[in-house]
Specification:
Elements (H helix, E strand, L loop, with lengths): L1 E3 H5 L10 H9 L4 E6 L9 E13 L5 E8 L19 E6 L9 E5 L4 E2 L3 E2 L2 E4 L2 E4 L1 E2 L30 H4 L6 E5 L10 H12 L6 H8 L10 E3 L11 E10 L9 H9 L7 H13 L3 E5 L7 E5 L5 E3 L5 E3 L5 E5 L2 E5 L3 E2 L12 E8 L1 H10 L5 H8 L6 H16 L2 E10 L6 E5 L2 H6 L5 H10 L3 E4 L3 E5 L10 H12 L19 H15 L3 E2 L5 E2 L1 H7 L23 E2 L4 H13 L5 E8 L21 H9 L6 E8 L1 E3 L8 E2 L2 H15 L4 E4 L5 E11 L2 E9 L1 H7 L6 E6 H6 L16 E10 L4 H12 L3 E10 L8 E10 L8 H19 L2 E2 L6
Helix pairs in contact: 5-10, 6-7, 7-10, 8-9, 12-13, 14-18, 21-22
Length: 853
């Protein structure tokens, strides 16, 4: 909501020297949020004055363009020139080239003289053009930044202005005014108006608010038999509420719709963010912004018979003011005459009855529509208007007659209209809400000891009528506060007006003996480790396509996994909850690559969603009471399993070429190292074996296990898949079930002691069948070597000359050490021999090269 300060000063005690920043700082004290400041003069500087065209000579040039060589007086005749600037003539008459033709000799216009700067940093200088020295510019509204119309220059008489030559054009146009913009939350629709903001300003400064609507309502005549015929025929109320509860009509005749819009009115609308259109339209917008009541003006000559408010019939259509034909829905609330729909109630009027420059008779509609009905229609047609924004938030049900009276007054004053006697006020004003507020309720909820006087003062300040007894306050809510429905709402108002800054701030004391769970500690340790290793944590949407779940969440091609479908997805292409993190990581990588990032090492930790036998509950529990154990059990049974996974993706190079080091491209080893890092950080032993997965490279895939359970895969992604996804070759990834990993966590990880005796190193190379996993050989050698073997590492896998087809040679580096003595070479060799023996028995391993055991 933009608030022109000159407008606000009419109804609130805003100091004359207060700035927009001052007003926002004041309104913040009562809970409104500051947004922005709008000050036209921030982009308009230098000499910008009123000038009068003395002569204009049309000249056609070789480029085919006709321009006017004008002489413009910028200082009153007979007065001394006081303007300074290079190119400003002492005579007070400027020679100016102008390409527009919508003005005449004698017109008063806005002249930007040399030294002036217009919006966009456009500086005005004296320059030679079209054979003349042009010293200034005759400005249009677009060039001044006060409108979009570029049909020609701004002729001041079109605004009903006849200012003195040489006067400050910015002052004449009201451009020294400024606006404060505040954010109005949906529950405070009353503040979507100058009336509401003025009331809040008075609350903030502790001054009484005099509601100008009261005087308007007293002057508004009562309904009578000569009023326009109106029928409220809403036969399909939403949630039991009628779509229109009140509708007031007034009629004026003899309106000069083509009359100029006064500069003060158009300036206020412009500063409030509303474009000036015509006198009738501008008056309706002005009243809406001032009072908060949206109005609609009909060209009475275009109406047929009376008007009615009803729901749409199947197949009906309406062309709205934006010239779009709209298919209507049976829930749409319509304004109709005898020919059919003439407007979407509370959203936008119809094109068939709109006012124009030829309109002389106007029927004013001022109505109160249901918030839910208007909101649904606005969203259904993707049509948001200033009117719908206010109706959605709730309009004062007692405001309609007063707002119509204000519109009538302005049409008479500015458009020369004559008021007809007929008045229609259909419907009824609802009874005000009455709320019981226990005496001690507010103090107990807020933590401040509010006295009875504090509570009475705050509630009467917002316009409520309050009576009190020994136990309760009985509060009659004012009509404009449709958001106040419960004692909690009143409590919030008391705290707001008394001052949020007076509510004490007390930090809660953490209960002793609690802290992170084992899972939380492990997760934080793992994520910190991955980040410290140079990876970047990302967060992806948990919504995927069903095909993504079938590809990434199962190793077997062709398997179709049960997945959870969203009832209202943000996109049909992403209508399922994920069973794997990798689809999201792939999308994050593709988005980053499209923005120029070619080297990525990213990871994510998050939940995946696996449906059980039951999905959802059989019924939704009622409100107002705690569900019984059976209902709670049914609710819990319908919640899908949500294990936590951790996954990562590697693309490009770990680092670029640099002096002394060539670029190193990420490969499957990086993905495998990341999984080892996760297992080490979590304190879990991870088993790695050759594996197969439909999304991974057939020969470069590792299967990850914890205990006897497969928990994930790591390696290089399938080349065909990378081509389909438009990802680089050798893109690598990993994903593991972190929840299952932690289930295999043993006790605390114990650090190894400092070695007191030297180690003995020996190597062994074994020839085995090519399909024997190296991990199985490691397990056999470790078991056979016993406690003396401290470490084992694979350092070679050879297949080729000298090795039989179907065989391979795997070489291991063994390290032996004893805790209580220095091992001899014979002891180490004996342990090595026992290790080889187990491998021979288990896999038929043969020492390569005839090495002796």
């Amino acid at each position: 909501m933009r608030i022109p300060l000159s407008w606000l000063r009419e109804y609130a005690p805003v100091p004359a020297d207060a700035t927009a920043e001052d007003v926002m700082a004041t309104l913040v004290r009562v809970g409104l949020e500051e947004e922005d400041v709008h000050r036209p003069t921030d982009e308009l500087t230098g000499p910008i004055v009123v000038g009068q065209v003395l002569s204009m000579e049309p000249e056609t040039h070789s480029n085919g363009k006709t321009v006017n060589w004008c002489q413009v007086r910028v200082v009153p005749e007979g007065q001394t020139q006081t303007l300074t600037g290079k190119g400003i003539e002492e005579s007070g008459v400027q020679g100016i080239i102008c390409g527009a033709h919508n003005f005449s000799v004698g017109d008063k216009v806005v002249v930007t003289l040399p030294g002036a700067v217009l919006p966009g940093g456009f500086a005005i200088t004296a320059r030679k053009t079209y054979g003349h020295k042009s010293a200034g510019m005759i400005a249009s509204v677009r060039e001044l930044g006060i409108g979009d119309d570029h049909g020609g220059i701004l002729v001041l008489s079109s605004l009903g202005l006849d200012p003195e030559i040489g006067s400050d054009a910015l002052e004449v146009l009201g451009l020294y005014d400024e606006a404060a913009e505040v954010n109005v939350t949906p529950d405070r629709g009353y503040a979507f108006s100058i009336r509401g903001i003025a009331r809040e300003y008075c609350h903030a400064v502790g001054e009484p608010f005099e509601d100008f609507v009261t005087a308007l309502a007293e002057r508004a005549p009562a309904t009578n038999a000569s009023g326009h015929r109106v029928e409220l025929a809403d036969t399909a109320p939403i949630h039991g509420k009628a779509g229109c509860t009140r509708l007031v009509t007034r009629k004026v005749t003899g309106v000069n719709s083509a009359a100029p819009v006064p500069a003060w009115l158009s300036a206020r609308l412009r500063l409030a963010g509303v474009r000036s259109v015509s006198l009738p339209v501008d008056i309706s917008n002005y009243v809406m912004l001032e009072t908060g009541q949206p109005l609609h003006f009909y060209d009475a000559a275009k109406l047929t018979g009376g008007i009615s408010v009803r729901r749409a019939n199947a197949g009906e259509k309406l062309t709205t003011l934006d010239d779009k034909q709209r298919e209507l829905h049976p829930e749409d609330l319509l304004i109709c005459d005898e020919t059919g729909p003439i407007g979407l109630a509370g959203v936008m009027g119809g094109a068939s009855t709109e006012t124009s420059a030829e309109t002389t008779d106007i029927l004013i509609e001022s109505a109160r529509f249901d918030e839910v009905s208007i909101a649904r229609t606005s969203r259904r047609h993707k049509l948001s208007s200033d009117a719908s924004k206010r109706f959605e938030r709730g309009v004062d049900p007692q405001l309609q007659a007063a707002a119509a009276q204000r519109a009538v007054d302005l049409l008479v004053e500015l458009g020369g209209a004559t008021v007809e006697d007929g008045v229609t006020d259909a419907g009824a004003t609802p009874e005000p809400a009455v709320i019981e507020l226990p005496q001690q309720y507010t103090s107990a909820r807020i933590g401040v000891d509010y006295s009875e006087a504090d509570i009475l003062s705050a509630l009467t300040e917002i316009g409520a009528e309050v009576s009190a007894d020994s136990e309760n306050f009985t509060v009659t809510v004012p009509s404009w506060r449709t958001d106040l429905r419960h004692k909690e709402d009143l409590t919030e108002e008391i705290a707001r007006l008394h001052g949020y800054d007076k509510i004490p701030s007390t930090l809660p004391v953490a209960p002793p003996g609690r802290g992170y769970t084992t899972e939380q500690k492990a997760r934080r340790t793992v994520l910190n480790a991955l980040a410290a290793a140079g990876m970047t944590e990302v967060f992806a949407y948990p919504f995927v396509a069903e095909a993504d779940n079938n590809l990434w969440a199962t190793p077997n091609d062709g398997d179709k996994l049960p997945s959870i479908k969203l009832a209202n997805p943000i996109s049909e292409a992403q209508g399922w909850l994920r069973r794997s993190l990798l689809p999201g990581l792939v999308e994050v990588a593709r988005r980053n690559m499209s923005r120029g990032f070619k080297n990525l090492a990213i990871f994510e930790s998050g939940h995946v969603f696996i449906p059980g036998e039951q999905l959802g509950s059989r019924e939704i529990p009622g409100l107002g009471k705690r569900p019984d154990d059976a209902v709670l059990a049914d609710l819990n049974a319908g919640i899908p399993d949500q294990p936590r996974h951790v996954g990562g993706l590697f693309i490009g190079a770990e680092h670029e070429d640099m002096p002394g080091a060539s670029a190193r491209t990420y490969d499957w080893r990086d993905a495998l190292d990341a999984t080892r890092l996760i297992a080490d950080a979590a304190g879990v032993e991870l088993t790695i074996a050759q594996g197969k997965h439909q999304a991974f490279h057939p020969g470069r895939t590792a299967e990850l296990s914890a205990g006897d359970t497969v928990i994930g895969y790591a390696g290089e992604l399938h080349p065909k898949l990378l081509k389909d996804l438009d990802l680089p070759e050798r893109t690598c990834a990993f994903e593991m079930n972190f929840s299952t990993l932690l289930e295999n966590k043993g006790g605390p990880v114990e650090a190894r002691g400092i070695f007191g005796y030297p180690a003995t190193n020996q190597d062994v190379a074994l020839i085995v069948d090519a399909d024997v996993p190296a991990s199985a050989l490691v397990e056999a050698l470790t078991e056979g070597a016993g406690d003396l073997m401290e470490d084992i590492r694979v350092f070679d896998d050879y297949r080729g000359t000298g090795i039989e087809p179907g065989k391979k040679s795997v070489a291991f580096a063994l390290r032996f050490r004893a805790d209580d003595r220095t091992l001899t070479a014979d002891e180490a060799s004996a342990s090595r021999a026992q290790a080889v023996k187990v491998a021979e028995e288990r896999f038929g391993a043969v020492l390569r090269g005839g090495d002796a055991a």
